[in-house]
Amino acid sequence: MSEQTQQRGTSGARRVVVVGAGMAGVQTAVALREQGFTGAVTVIGAEPHQPYDRPPLSKAVLLGKAEGSAFEVDFESLGIELTLGREALGVRTADRELDTESGPVAYDVLVLATGAEPVRLPGTEGVPGVHLLRTLDDAERLRPVLSRQHDIVVVGAGWIGAEFATAAREAGCAVTVVEAADRPLAGALPAEVAAPMAAWYADSGATLRTHARVVRVEPGAVVLDDGARLPAGAVVVGIGARPATDWLSGSGIELGAHGEIVADDRLRASVPDVYAVGDCASFPSARYGERLLVHHWDNALQGPRTVAANIVGEAPAVYDPVPYFWSEQFGRFVQYAGHHASADRLLWRGDPVGPAWTVCWLREDRLVALLAVGRPRDLAQGRRLIEAGTPVDREILADPARPLKEATAR
Ligand code: FAD
Predict the structure, then answer these.
(1) How many Å lie between the centroid of ligand 1 and the Cα of residue 57?
(2) Ligand 1: distance of its center to the CA of 90 in Å?
(3) CA–CA gap between residue 398 and residue 373 (Å, rounded)
(4) 115 Cα–ligand 1 center, Å
């Protein structure tokens, strides 16, 4: 990170331009106003729709239980200029200008909040019947697919794959989920924690095929590497997402190994007066001693407050959250807080065969992460223990009958 970036603050800015009108972009604009910023705020978003929330897309919106999920933000009364259906194509940081489809836009401060794009299954781009699930348009295309009650093949047993499979089963479709790894959520959770989740698929009537790689998609079928040919009226690909930052190549803004914008602990990018927040950016976590790239909703809500504080305020605001997310799958409410990569011990709280259980990860007798299935109170209390970073009593932690908050070692 350049020296110039380290020393500069941005208070006194007259025009903030935010690229990306998702959760992180919209929340940045709102937080700027909440924190008293009186200059111009412009949000530029590529999608034509009124800015909306993504989590309902794989839940209520997909099933037609909600029409849409537009944010309830009165942009006009907040004095936020919203420019939709306009893609940013590049940045010339020396000139402080953004290039867009319809011409340049000058800024004093630029906030990059372009989120992430789903990874495509090679060879399936433009193939009829192959779907992704990232945008409102994707969800709207998938709704009639569900109501036709096709045989559906879901590629990837990650968070999105599991949520889509849940909705498709609820809609009465025959669902097969194919996963290249040996278990669901292989990239997110260790084998012993993910193991009980595999049974959730079968309980819901979905078929989970692990160690299964897709070789090709043919009209009406998915062919696997073991020669199996799965009937597929539709295919839904949920194999991960990548920061949407291709448009920044050549801008001089540093990108990391996953294509993400490399931000510092105040969410500043590597060039002056440029910030990055949400799914498109990584940040150094002092709490966990490593750089984090978080693709979850809470990060797109909390990060913008830090960005706004650094733009508006004199004192530096540091971003070092306890990451949090939830997932609703197979009739269960799954919540996770923290980051378990550096944990040296795992403790079960409750029986994973049952409907409600929690897993706690510790490092040197401090709680660093937990996963709670159907135990929201554990999540709330555990999150506070993680934030406090004080030693915990392992016996209490492992006893599901005792509240987690009692585990603070005396
Ligand atoms: P995005 O929401 O991706 O918004 C970025 C916006 O920027 C997009 O609208 C994009 O079109 C726009 N953009 C991109 N490039 C450009 C450009 N060059 N110019 C202009 N605009 C551009 N998280 C949870 O914690 N729990 C959940 O249950 C959950 N469910 C989810 C379900 C689905 C279907 C999806 C897709 C995500 C879910 N998430 C969930 C993740 C969560 O929604 C994301 O972490 C969050 O939306 C990230 O917000 P963001 O603003 O950083 O990015």
Answers:
(1) 11
(2) 20
(3) 15
(4) 5
Q: Which atom of ligand 1 is nearest the CA belonging to 278?
A: 52
Query: Which atom belonging to ligand 1 lies closest to the Cα atom of 100?
Result: 19
CB atoms within 10 A of CB 202: 11
Residue 51 CB less than 6 A away from ligand 1: no
Assessment of whether the complete model's pTM goes beyond 0.90: yes
Please choose from 62, 91, 114 the residue to mutate so as to test ligand 1's pocket, defined by most ligand atoms within 8 A of CB: 114
pLDDT tens for 17-64 read 999 999 999 999 999 999 999 999 999 999 999 999 999 999 999 998
Residues 6+ apart with CB under 8 A from 81: 40, 41, 42, 43, 75
E strand spans, 219-356: 221-224, 229-231, 234-237, 241-243, 261-262, 274-276, 281-285, 290-293, 324-329, 332-338, 345-349
Q: Is the dihedral of CA 250, 254, 260, 264 positive or negative?
A: negative
Write out pLDDT tens, residues 75-118. 999 999 999 999 999 999 999 999 999 999 999 999 999 999 99
Q: 261 CB less than 6 Å from ligand 1? A: no
Q: Is the CB of 294 under 6 A from ligand 1?
A: no
What spacing in Å lies between the alpha carbon of 129 and ligand 1's midpoint? Answer: 23
- Is the distance from CB of 329 to CB of 313 less than 8 angstroms? no
Kindly give the distance from the C-alpha atom of residue 177 to the centroid of ligand 1, in angstroms, as a whole number: 23
Give the tokens for residue 68: 């849409």
Give me the half-sphere count of Cα atoms (radius 13 Å) on the Cβ side of residue 319.
Answer: 32
Confidence of residue 409 (pLDDT cuts 50, 70, 90): low
Q: What is the pLDDT of residues 158-188, one digit of tens each?
A: 999 999 999 999 999 999 999 999 999 999 9
**E-strand stretches of 146-300:** 151-155, 174-178, 207-209, 214-218, 221-224, 229-231, 234-237, 241-243, 261-262, 274-276, 281-285, 290-293
Domains defined for the chain, CATH in brackets = 3-117+241-312 (3.50.50.60), 120-237 (3.50.50.60), 331-407 (3.30.390.30)
